[in-house]
Amino acid sequence: xxxxxxxxxxxxxxxxxxxxxxNENNLVVRARPKDxxxxxxxxxxxxxxxxxxxxxxxxxxxxxxxxxxxxxxxxNADDFVQALYNLVSQHKTFGDCVVGTSHDxxxxxxxxxxxxGCQKGGIRITHMQAETEKGKISTVSLYEIIExxx
Length: 150
Fold this sequence. Notes:
Largest sheet: 8 strands, antiparallel
Strand content: over 45%
Structural class: alpha+beta
Order of helices and strands: HEEEEHEEEE
Strand order of the largest sheet: 1-2-3-4-8-7-6-5
Radius of gyration: 16 Å
Shape: globular
């Protein structure tokens, strides 16, 4: 089992998706139309992503981005910092790490990302801003990166 999800690294993609859909609280959707490599698992109770699954060309699970973003944290930044602390402190060692950043700007919005890639996992923090018909929205997400064991 992987990060408390009812799946394993050896399962084919359709079996993984079917197992996740058995939980009536999960909404499992493609991240992008016509792209079979990236799927979001949305928690129906909190209405936010609980994980993002990445598959290779053969349909094998490659990576899981597990959300540590606390529900409702926007009302309390301390909750976000506590979630980051909990994520980092759960790992005795990540091994050697590399820190990187990226910025993406498109007509509908922009995103900034901090990525900590390590020998034994990693962390991704993403800040996105977008213009909608209801005005500007801003979100921040915290993910633990879990890669398929070699």
